[in-house]
């Protein structure tokens, strides 16, 4: 796949480093803001990227690419995705796919109309351990309660406390704990249990942005909580408790580390099928899947995964509404 990257921030830097493990991908171009063009040029030099642009629209039209990777703040995902799809390019869009369901549906409709690939870069559904977790579920009988926490004090939290507004804490750019971390918890739970009947979110809101909060997803006969924090320290883990035992993953939902299965008979088994040790390899499986879809023309698989993204977007909307958090102007 011939990629054009949009963005020059944290995630684009990390993904460029990982490209050496993805021989099926080449990066042909990178687009930044005019302000960040010098940084884009540095990245281009370091990663042998042939073309640099300070306007993503120009890159989409001019560059020799088939797929656009969207690595910009959340509030810009739809604009870049629409422009790329409109120009006949496939899209890998960073999580969350869009600000909410209306935007996610818009992007999804356009991809389907044009017969193009649109993948949300959300690694959880592609991780081998997640598949293992799903296959272990019947062992714990009827799942009754689940608890999934993603606690990650942001490296930008001190700047936020000092009065700055980095994108991940900027409500206007789609920041906040729900959008940044809650989306993982939602994917994790929705992928296991389907669409919830009711959703609520209680949040700590500072300067208009949720820095942490607690999600509740009611699946009817099974209730789940999701604790997310960008302003606190603590362990992250995921637990599914059922009538016959429980499954414990003692790691962040996004890494889906080893799982232990504890049954009523006292037995305990450990499962670790991810096949990688370094945390930065946690994106390998999703990129391999995108490549497979692309090489085989499997739009059906891509769109089934996109349906999951739409469900997650619907949950985001309900959670946000229940906490009284408004979408920024022009995204409502
Ligand atoms: N999958 C994962 O594991 C993962 C991890 C982290 C983040 N993400 C996602 O990745 C996205 C970006 O997050 P981040 O942490 O990388 O944010 P970030 O460090 O704030 O970077 C955002 C980048 O987007 C650039 N940008 C803004 N508007 C642009 C435009 N019109 N054209 C080109 N570039 C533009 C910014 O440039 P300026 O600095 O010049 O404004 C900056 O380089 C978010 O959606 C986030 O949810 C995913």
UniProtKB/TrEMBL annotation:
Show the Pfam families listed in the entry: GFO_IDH_MocA, GFO_IDH_MocA_C3
Kindly list the residue ranges recorded as spanning the membrane. Answer: none
Question: Where would I find the GFO/IDH/MocA-like oxidoreductase domain in this sequence?
Answer: 140-247
InterPro entries, per the entry: Gfo/Idh/MocA-like_OxRdtase_N, GFO_IDH_MocA-like_dom, NAD(P)-bd_dom_sf
Per UniProt, residues of the Gfo/Idh/MocA-like oxidoreductase N-terminal domain are 2-119
Out of the domains of life, which is the source? Bacteria
UniProt-recorded name of the protein: Gfo/Idh/MocA family oxidoreductase
Query: From what organism does this protein derive?
Result: Olsenella absiana
């Amino acid at each position: 796949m011939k990629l054009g990257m949009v963005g020059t921030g944290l995630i684009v830097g990390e993904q460029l480093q990982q490209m050496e493990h993805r021989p099926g991908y080449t990066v042909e171009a990178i687009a930044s803001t005019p302000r960040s063009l010098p940084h884009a040029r540095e990245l281009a030099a370091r990663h042998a990227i042939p073309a640099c642009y300070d306007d993503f629209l120009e890159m989409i039209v001019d560059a020799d690419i088939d797929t656009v990777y969207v690595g910009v703040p959340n509030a810009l995902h739809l604009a870049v995705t629409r422009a790329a799809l409109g120009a006949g390019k496939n899209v890998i869009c960073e999580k969350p796919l869009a600000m909410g369901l209306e935007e996610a549906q818009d992007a999804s409709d356009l991809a389907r109309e044009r017969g193009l690939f649109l993948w949300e870069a959300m690694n959880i559904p592609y991780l081998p351990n997640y598949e293992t977790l799903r296959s272990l579920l019947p062992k714990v009988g009827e799942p009754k309660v689940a608890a999934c926490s993603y606690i990650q004090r942001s490296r930008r939290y001190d700047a936020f406390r000092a009065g700055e507004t980095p994108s991940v804490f900027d409500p206007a750019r789609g920041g906040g704990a729900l959008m940044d971390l809650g989306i993982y918890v939602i994917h994790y739970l929705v992928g296991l249990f389907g669409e919830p009947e009711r959703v609520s979110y209680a949040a700590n809101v500072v300067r208009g942005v949720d820095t942490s909060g607690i999600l509740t997803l009611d699946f009817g006969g099974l209730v789940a909580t999701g604790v997310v924090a960008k302003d606190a320290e603590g362990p992250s883990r995921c637990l599914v408790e059922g009538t016959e035992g429980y499954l414990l993953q003692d790691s962040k939902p996004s890494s889906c580390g080893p799982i232990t299965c504890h049954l009523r008979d006292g037995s305990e088994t450990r499962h670790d099928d991810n096949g990688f040790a370094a945390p930065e390899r946690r994106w390998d499986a999703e990129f391999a899947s995108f490549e497979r879809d692309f090489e085989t023309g499997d739009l059906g698989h891509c769109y089934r995964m996109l349906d999951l993204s739409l469900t997650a977007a619907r949950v985001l909307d309900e959670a946000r509404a229940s906490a009284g958090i408004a979408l920024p102007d022009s995204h409502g």
